[in-house]
Amino acid sequence: MTEEFIPYGSQWIDEQDIEAVAKTLKSDYLTTGPKIKEFEEKFADYVDVKYAVAIANGTAALHAAIFAAGIKEDDEVITTPITFAASANSVIYQNGIPVFADIDPDTYNIDPESIKEKITDKTKAIIPVHFTGQPCEMDEIMKIADKYNLTVIADGAHAVGAEYKGQKIGSIADMTTFSFHPVKHITTGEGGMITTDSKKLYDKLIKFRTHGITKNSSEYINESHGPWYHEQQKLGYNYRITDIQCALGISQLEKIDKFLARRKEIVKEYNKAFNDFEGIIIPEQLEDTNSAWHLYVIQLDLEKLTADRRKVFKDLRDTNLGVNVHYIPVYYHPYYQSLGYKKGICPNAENLYERIITIPLYPKMSDQQVEEVIKRTKEVIRKNQK
Ligand SMILES: *Cc1c(COP(=O)(O)O)cnc(C)c1O
């Protein structure tokens, strides 16, 4: 008999969510209506920031933030290779150049020391990614940004609800982006958000989301022709999110604390099971941070194993665990190779990549499923121990 398949991540939709969406479907606005503002205000309130802009998806959020930061041709933006490609792609959308800094081998997050080494007179911004939900060393990063006059755009796709020194992720960097893809903390199907305390950045983000068009007369460059008048001032996109999606987002956000608590509870079980288990290194956490635990990444202690990651991964998949790898270093992808990025630029990231496996973690997991993941993972590792 084959065992139950357990994916690495999954949404949790309940009747309240379905009702909220149905109600919006019966309302006057499917898009550009009141649910968008309501979702933005509630999200801003949650992360304790002045402004939030809801947008089509997390990638559009990054693109908008790169635009608002004024990134243009040949500007360099420093980010990590241990992230989803979108963190770096967004820079290229505006003809900037992603520069990869190495990671800290303990936290797997971008290493502030490596950021410093990568700064040139073309550097304009930093995109730290709060990988797995663990906050980056923001004090260090903001200090560097201050010294070199750089904009910090944090990719918080993994970090809704994470805290750094008591402060929510979303209110520390100049801008923070979020994703509401179904594997993330809360979902709108597709969706994203940018948060900022800056009115100036907010105004740019809002216009970018709708073609670069403004209907705010106080901003007009030319004289108004009449009540129908509006102006396209920059090249923007249609990156709008719908009221249907935002209604779901509002309903999901009401459950964020429950979702986060359940993720933490599961992590506690995993830590207990795998701490001191030969062949597995559990994820290390910085002091004074509170991870949102989007992912649970085990690192294989290859010196203690007879197998490599490829073999262990296959063995885990063979037990019907939906394990995954987060991430292939961005510059390994053929597109980045075609741009001239060479292997070897971030040795810590490359070394980590050979050893990591993401095991299932999502709030809807039952205790029994958690036990199953532990049991199957231990069996596979035991089989491959020296
Ligand atoms: C999910 C994710 C994104 C992209 O978000 P989408 O909503 O899928 O566009 C960007 N960065 C990271 C780190 C992500 O995990």
TrEMBL record:
The active site is at 184 (proton acceptor). Pfam families: DegT_DnrJ_EryC1 (PF01041). GO terms for molecular function: pyridoxal phosphate binding; transaminase activity. It comes from the Bacteria. One of its GO terms (biological process) is polysaccharide biosynthetic process. The keyword Repeat does not apply. InterPro entries: DegT/StrS_aminotransferase, PseC, PyrdxlP-dep_Trfase, PyrdxlP-dep_Trfase_major, PyrdxlP-dep_Trfase_small. Keywords: Pyridoxal phosphate. The modification N6-(pyridoxal phosphate)lysine is found at residue 184. Gene3D superfamilies: Aspartate Aminotransferase, domain 1, Type I PLP-dependent aspartate aminotransferase-like (Major domain). PANTHER family: DTDP-4-AMINO-4,6-DIDEOXYGALACTOSE TRANSAMINASE, TRANSAMINASE. Belongs to the DegT/DnrJ/EryC1 family. NCBIfam families: PseC (TIGR03588). This is UDP-4-amino-4, 6-dideoxy-N-acetyl-beta-L-altrosamine transaminase. It comes from Halanaerobium saccharolyticum.
